[in-house]
């Protein structure tokens, strides 16, 4: 006998026989009658009389289990197994108990033993499925549960369990079908209704999720899990007060539920009550220290409190527990560029750096500050040697041996003058060795290949002396006529000056170039294979119409020469982590209580998004965060579009329609859009207002547009730079850009001393061209920005700014809780002129 439920004891006394079998018979009779107290006494008397029958032990174990005496239950079940190792029910009961105690390995072993003895027990197969599910072995869980159903087709509990497994597998349609089948068989199952609510929640059908969960609570008002789930649903609906009440009710019923404490922390966090959020999350971790999701939330709370080192520690702990935790990874990617290396966070920060440098779904430029902090001291030490390449230069040896430095050089452009100067000197020494046919030290091979990729990434922005140019020009034909071994030795050095795809080298040698290391593979991929692919793509691009606007044609020519920006990887969001567009707009806006159409707020709609001026596609890749979005991306440069198409293909984005066209011709597109992004584009038009008018006509009423426009105050130094360039008669060519940069770096222009610190744009050719040499640039003040939006019927939703800037603004203007006062922002920017050093970036809503 197994699986008795709790019941009130029957106080009627029964005459107890001292005969073992009779005592067992009487115990079973009392047990079936619900007289648990008397049944327990009879089982014990039977055992004490020396009648050690497995059923006596097993049924007594059931009583102990159902009366929360787990330790005694384990002991008595083990005695049942000892009494008769071939009694399947004893093994099954012991497995169930181990499962409830969280001892899943023991649970699995006991349950498998039960099935070895009694293979066709549907209930044990069902329990085995639950154990596999709890172990994260979902395929085995599915197989066991389906086996149970094959043996017992109409078991509602098995269908319910099957639905939960399908839910964990992400097969939500199957999860819904099987859970509804469970309810068809047993309509009054509180747990099945609760599970149904969870499935509807995952499907984004929040109204149905709410109804199912409320039905669960109608059937069983004291179901603490249902109250906890109800809190989660209310939270997703934005009804935070109701979410708080439901979660607190869950904790009232089950005070030691770590998941409910975690959820409570999340709700307090959404309410901005960070101290309470912290207390709740720490309580959750006290109850369940190894919960990766709670550590993830803890990191977000510390971030909200401005405690960055603690946020880092919590996030790293979460990733140690669950390395593929998407929430923790997204959080880390979001604040890594705010961190500064110090003695207390060094270990965690290095771990974070090593983790992120190995990812391909992040824009590695946000790691630049940490790169400088970590490697600059060693680079400066290595730079003390002249020549740098020396057997005594231990610092260079250490740099060359550090995989993190080598890989970083292939991923990001270090925005630091001393690092650029060091790499420029190293490159010059390498080409000097090659020209003299001197063997490059073996320990520098990987570093040389990484340097070649770095030079390609920054578009050969480093200073090149006439001597170097001569050496390279002599080396190239020499390589073509040399032996393959020499070719392999010096190819990377040539690639530090000229991209491989532009050189007419022996194709067989290129194909046979040794690519056994990351650095060598990356060199060939980035400088040969990918450009060849882009050439094939470019041949397929056709424009919607000819570019007729004069300024547009000039801008087009510029970006055909220098597609902007060049990057290796971008911020990409997997489909499973994507959210509806409204969530992104709310997160990036300061205005509260924004109103959204159903298509922007639903997880099931197919919102149409236009990215106007997509460039090389980083915005397109970032738009992967929009759930189910159907994206149209336009640009007037074939070279930029080619790069964007290749990158979108790399990330498997099949929801993007790329078009070559001028923004002014956007009326030629058949559809209208729910959301438009146009960042860093309008200010390069002759008449930005005309461009904005074209876009707003394609934006649906109530839709949102994201804009990025230059600030006149923040770009005063750029204005000076542009005047200097004009005075010098410098053209927008690679040589002129290099010449201008060197004058700035050598301090020839005192009024441009801060230009190298102007973001990372100074340290690559196309970025510097866009920064200082652009053929067309308009800048805005806060007041002219207000007039622009007002004239187009757009409501300002607040600037996209750092938490530090938000705090400063709120201290000065506490009455402007939405932070949307243009008058206030005008005053603020006057006193904090670097606030919008990148651009004014913000969302605005079109009126209905």
Give a written overview of the molecule.
The chain has 848 residues and is mostly helical. The chain is built from 41 helices and 7 strands. The longest helix has 21 residues, at 518-538. The protein is globular and about 110 Å long. The model is unreliable at 1-17 (pLDDT under 50).
Secondary structure: elements and pairs:
Layout: H1 20-32, H2 36-48, H3 54-66, H4 70-83, H5 88-100, H6 104-117, H7 122-134, H8 138-151, H9 156-168, H10 172-185, H11 190-202, H12 206-219, H13 224-236, H14 240-253, H15 258-270, H16 274-287, H17 292-304, H18 308-321, H19 326-335, H20 346-357, H21 368-382, H22 394-401, H23 403-411, H24 417-435, H25 445-457, H26 466-480, H27 484-494, H28 507-511, H29 518-538, H30 550-561, H31 581-588, H32 598-601, E1 608-612, H33 618-622, E2 630-635, H34 638-650, E3 656-660, E4 673-679, H35 688-697, E5 699-709, H36 716-728, H37 734-745, H38 765-772, H39 782-790, E6 794-799, H40 803-812, H41 822-831, E7 840-846
Parallel strand pairs: 1-2, 1-4, 2-3, 4-5
Antiparallel strand pairs: 5-7, 6-7
Helix pairs in contact: 1-2, 2-3, 3-4, 3-5, 4-5, 5-6, 6-7, 7-8, 8-9, 9-10, 9-11, 10-11, 11-12, 11-13, 12-13, 13-14, 13-15, 14-15, 15-16, 15-17, 16-17, 17-18, 17-19, 18-19, 21-22, 23-25, 24-26, 25-27, 25-29, 26-27, 29-34
Question: What are the salient characteristics of this protein?
Answer:
single chain; about 850 residues; mainly alpha; seven-stranded mixed β-sheet; 41 helices; about 60% helix; disordered N terminus
